[in-house]
Design brief:
globular, 7-stranded mixed beta sheet, alpha+beta, 265 residues
Length: 265
C-alpha cells in the first residue's frame, strides 16, 4: 500500500487526448489517471490550513481561506466572483501589484458546453485549465478584452441569453447539451451590445475535452470531509475537480483545499 499525507490543493491538469490529472497532497503530486479502477482511502485528520497564510482554521472560507485572508487577500476579492465589480482599472484594489497581474491583463470571455452552454471569463493564461476545472466537454473563445472589469460587463450582458453556472450534477452524469457551440457564438455576436462587439474574436476553434472516466454515474451523491472523516471507494473517473467513485459518490477536491488528508492506495 502506498500512502501520502498533507494538505490538499486543487488538482492540476494538462490537456492531452484525455485530460491528465495530478492531485497535490502536501509536497507530493499524485498521478490520478493511473489510479482509475483502484480503491482509494482518504482520511481527514481534522486539520484545515489556510491556503494563503498557512494558519490552522476551524472552518474553510471561499475554498481554502481562513476568515482573515478571506476578508483581506486579493485572491479572495469580490471581483473573483463578480468581475463587473472590479475597480483595478480605476486604481482601486486590495493589492494593486496583484491586480496588475490578475485583473489588468487580457481576459477571455468564453463559451463552454456541459449540461448547457454557459458564459464565463478567465485570464488568457488560464486556458484551457479553467475549462477543465469546470468539466466542460467543449469550449471556445468568444471575446478578448483588456481587463477584468470589461470582461465582467460583457459577461453580465450575455447572461440575458446564457447561464453563467454549471449544473454540477448533470455535468458529472455527462448529460451534455447538443447545441452547436460555433452556431451559438455566431448568433450571440449579433445579440451583443454595440459597445462590446469590437472585442468579439474571429476565432472559430472549438476545443474538445475528454476526461479520464471509465463510467459515468446515473445518480450522484456529494461527499464532504466536514461530515465524513474517511472516504473509501473504487475510483471510476475524474472530471472537473471531482473524483468519481463507482457507487455514484463524488468528491469535490477543490472545495477541500487546505484539508489535511492521508491518501492510501
Amino acid at each position: 500500500m502506498t500512502a501520502y499525507a498533507g494538505n490538499l490543493r486543487k488538482m492540476r491538469s494538462a490537456l492531452d487526448s484525455t485530460v491528465r490529472y495530478q492531485l497535490p497532497v502536501g509536497a507530493d503530486l499524485v498521478d490520478m489517471n493511473d489510479l482509475l479502477g483502484r480503491t482509494l482511502r482518504l482520511t481527514f485528520d481534522g486539520r484545515i490550513n489556510c491556503i494563503e497564510c498557512g494558519r490552522q482554521t476551524k472552518k474553510s472560507f471561499g475554498q481554502g481561506f481562513c476568515y482573515p485572508c478571506f476578508r483581506n487577500s486579493p485572491s479572495a476579492s469580490e471581483c473573483i466572483i463578480r468581475p463587473e465589480l472590479c475597480r483595478a482599472h480605476e486604481g482601486e484594489a486590495r493589492d494593486m501589484e496583484w491586480a496588475r497581474a490578475h485583473c489588468l491583463t487580457e481576459q477571455v470571455v468564453y463559451l463552454a458546453k456541459s449540461s448547457a452552454i454557459k458564459v464565463g471569463i478567465t485570464r488568457s493564461s488560464q486556458l484551457p485549465t479553467r475549462w477543465i476545472d469546470q468539466g466542460a466537454s467543449e469550449a471556445m473563445v468568444f471575446a478578448r478584452v483588456p481587463n477584468r472589469y470589461t470582461a465582467g460587463c460583457v459577461e453580465v450582458a450575455m447572461k440575458s441569453f446564457l447561464t453563467d453556472k454549471t449544473n454540477w450534477q448533470r455535468m458529472l452524469k455527462n448529460e451534455v447539451s447538443q447545441e452547436d457551440l460555433l452556431k451559438k457564438k455566431r448568433s450571440l455576436s449579433d445579440e451583443t451590445a454595440p459597445e462590446f462587439r469590437d472585442y468579439i474574436t474571429d476565432d472559430t476553434d472549438v476545443w474538445t475535452i475528454t476526461y479520464p472516466v471509465d463510467s459515468y454515474p446515473t445518480r450522484v451523491k456529494s461527499l464532504s470531509f466536514d461530515k465524513l472523516a474517511e472516504i473509501e471507494g473504487r475510483l471510476s473517473g475524474i472530471k472537473g475537480q471531482y473524483l468519481l467513485f463507482d457507487d455514484g459518490r463524488v468528491l469535490n477536491v477543490r472545495k477541500h483545499s487546505g484539508y489535511f488528508v492521508s491518501l492510501d492506495i
